[in-house]
Design a protein that fits this description.
single chain, about 325 residues, alpha+beta, 3 domains, seven-stranded mixed beta sheet, two-stranded antiparallel ribbon, 13 helices, MULE_transposase_dom, MULE transposase domain-containing protein
């Protein structure tokens, strides 16, 4: 930080805490007592987490300044299936020790309430830290991160054919026994059947398959979140407010404006939902009639699609056991 910024930051957070009783912040210092990382969450973020904490996404892809420091954010879906922010931090680096501090601080802020599922990048330090701090929580690897990492690690081999094969493994392979066959097909079609050990990134990706392939992910509650759509949309939103040449003081000012804009958009959606009648294509279904008035249009549309899909299946009784088959 430039001279004087540390003092300004601490003053900023002290004023926030005085004006907002529920405002929570913590500062990590290094060996010489300099500020290293900063976490904060206001009362509304804490309330939103208490409401929408089942599935969250952790993102560090947005870089806040010319020193390439990451803005870390916990995000989730609100009742309109739009991004909602639960807490943020400016991190000095992306080591396991820094992630440990951030996750412990976040949970302390949220009364140690853990989510059911957390989506993250496949960085080794992050995987280690999440496994350590979020014990008992399913951690999925975001497919968007996988695609970005594939481009960095595989170069020209990460072409359209490869991404078609990877997308199939992520979303369409629903049986663990089928995974190896489809993986071998990808290696044959895209890598000329070369051993997986020739590609370090593929070794790591295969090792962590239970965190990203539908064959395993289907057993966990994900609220329909398989990619980093939350992170992508929030990063695009951030770029409209934050620039790399902003000073730390200007950053916090613009960040607060951005958060308020997100909340204004949510209030607008709440107003429209209260004034709009949600369309139900199954008026004779007791199930659909019972939920149509309880959900926002966006959430009901998600349920509606799942209900549509249910008609693709039937059951047959076979030797006393029930099993499902698709038409």
């Amino acid at each position: 930080m430039v001279r004087g910024e540390a003092t300004v930051i601490q003053e900023f957070f002290r004023n926030e805490a005085l004006s907002k009783p529920s405002f929570y912040y913590d500062i990590q210092v290094d060996a010489v007592e300099d500020i290293a990382s900063i976490f904060w969450a206001d009362g509304i973020m804490q309330l939103d987490y208490s409401l929408f904490d089942n599935v969250i996404s952790f993102d560090t892809t947005y870089r806040t300044n010319n020193q390439y420091r990451p803005l870390a954010a916990f995000l989730g879906f609100d009742n309109h299936r739009k991004s909602v922010l639960f807490g943020a931090a400016l991190l000095y680096d992306e080591t396991a020790a820094t992630f440990d501090w951030f996750f412990i601080t976040f949970l302390k802020c949220m009364s140690n309430k853990k989510p059911q599922t957390i989506y993250i990048d496949q960085a080794t330090a992050l995987l280690m830290s999440v496994s350590n701090i979020f014990q008992g929580v399913f951690h999925g690897i975001c497919s968007w991160y996988m695609s970005e990492n594939a481009k960095k690690n595989l170069g020209s081999r990460a072409n359209n054919a490869f991404f078609d094969e990877l997308t199939n493994l992520i979303s369409n392979v629903d049986d663990e026994s089928d995974f190896d066959y489809n993986w071998d097909q990808m290696m044959k079609n895209c890598f000329n059947g070369r051993p997986i050990s020739d590609f370090t990134w593929l070794v790591q990706t295969h090792r962590n398959r239970m965190h990203w392939s539908s064959a395993w992910v289907k057993s966990h509650f994900t609220a329909g979140l398989k990619t980093t759509s939350l992170s992508e949309s929030s990063n695009a939103f951030l770029r409209g407010f934050l620039q790399p040449d902003h000073s730390i003081v200007l950053f916090f000012s613009h960040f607060n404006i951005m958060v308020q804009r997100m909340r204004d958009n949510h209030a607008d959606l709440d107003f429209k939902a209260a004034k709009t009648r949600t369309k139900n294509n199954y008026p004779n279904s007791q199930l659909m009639r019972s939920v149509v008035k309880k959900y926002t249009s966006a959430s009901f549309a998600f349920i509606h699609r799942q209900y549509d899909l249910s008609f693709k299946y039937y059951y047959e009784e076979c030797r006393g056991d029930f099993w499902m088959s698709s038409y």
